[in-house]
Design brief:
By secondary structure, this protein is mostly helical. The protein is built from 13 helices and four strands. Among the domains are: 64 residues, no CATH class; 65 residues, AF1531-like domain (DNA polymerase, domain 1), CATH 1.10.150; 60 residues, Photosystem II 12 kDa extrinsic protein (DNA polymerase, domain 1).
């Protein structure tokens, strides 16, 4: 009678053995695995902690101190101070430094001095000086005192004098006539004539400031010797001028000129100059500037 193999086991017994083996492995290695995880976590803390608290040296330390001081520092806001005077004064007697105390820049104060040296007789004249900020004028207007005009002096002012500066009409003067103005050379004389022709004539003296390379200092020196006769201003017909002709004017660009022509075609002609304001690309400022040069 032959005996069977003692190592032969049924499938049920084999499965039982495998389950027992896996359970034994888990029981043996699970505590070690959890211990390893705890060590890894504590090691991470040990590594991170010194990095956070590690002192900085050299360039890094300087950079860190600069950043912290920069965050804490509060920078004062630059605000132009328009101070009020404390007592009445004559604007014609103020120095450049005194004008600067009222809020004018050094450049503005130097230009205003050129006006006041000729003599200002009222707040109206003072307000016409474009280089005095509105805030400054509002602060000083109630403190200004102008000396009364002596009758004999006022008569002399209106008497013709050989030393009186020649007044030149900027809309009709030649280059040679403009060069007779004190402070105006041949370069600016040519530029004034060139811009006058592009505009169609000056309607106010302040437009001289738009001349190429004209400076406020030169304008302040020559403006009293200029006049603008608006009788012969050349105008553009918005009902007949082409887009090219309109665009040639310094106050209009191609899009605005083309818009005027298209609106004219849609309307069958303009009945008033104000109708061009219907164009969304012609703002109020542009319209007011170009208005004196337009006609129907």
């Amino acid at each position: 009678m032959s005996q069977g193999n003692p190592f032969d086991m049924s499938i049920r017994h084999q499965r039982g053995m495998w389950v027992l083996l896996i359970a034994s492995i888990l029981i043996i290695f699970a505590p070690r695995f959890f211990l390893f995880l705890q060590r890894d976590e504590s090691a991470t803390k040990l590594i991170l902690l010194p990095i956070e608290e590690k002192p900085q040296f050299g360039y890094q330390a300087k950079q860190q101190r600069w950043k912290s001081s920069y965050k804490k520092r509060t920078w004062p806001r630059s605000k132009k101070a328009f101070k009020k005077p404390t007592k009445p004064f004559n604007p014609n007697e103020l120095s450049q430094e005194e004008w600067m105390q009222f809020g004018l820049s050094e450049k503005q104060a130097s230009i205003v001095l050129k006006f006041t040296q000729r003599g200002i007789t009222s707040n109206e004249e003072l307000q016409k000086i474009k280089f005095i900020p509105k805030e400054t004028f509002e602060n000083i207007k109630d403190f200004t005192q102008f000396p009364p005009l002596d009758k004999e002096v006022s008569k002399k002012q209106f008497m013709p004098s050989s030393n009186a500066p020649t007044i030149v009409n900027a809309n009709e003067a030649s280059e040679e006539e403009l060069m007779k103005i004190k402070g105006l050379g041949p370069f600016y004389a040519r530029q004034i004539i060139k811009y006058q022709q592009q505009l169609g004539g000056f309607v106010r003296k302040e437009q001289i400031l738009e001349v190429w390379k004209m400076t406020p200092e030169i304008y302040a020196q020559i403006q009293a010797q200029l006049s603008c006769d608006v009788a012969n201003i050349r105008k553009l017909s918005i009902n007949h001028a082409s887009a090219e002709e309109l665009q040639a004017h310094p106050y209009l660009n191609w899009n605005q000129a083309n818009s005027i022509v298209k609106m004219r075609m849609q309307k069958g002609g303009f009945k008033s100059i104000e109708e061009i304001r219907e164009s969304v690309i012609i703002d109020k400022e542009t319209f007011e500037k170009v208005r004196p040069y337009l006609s129907l």
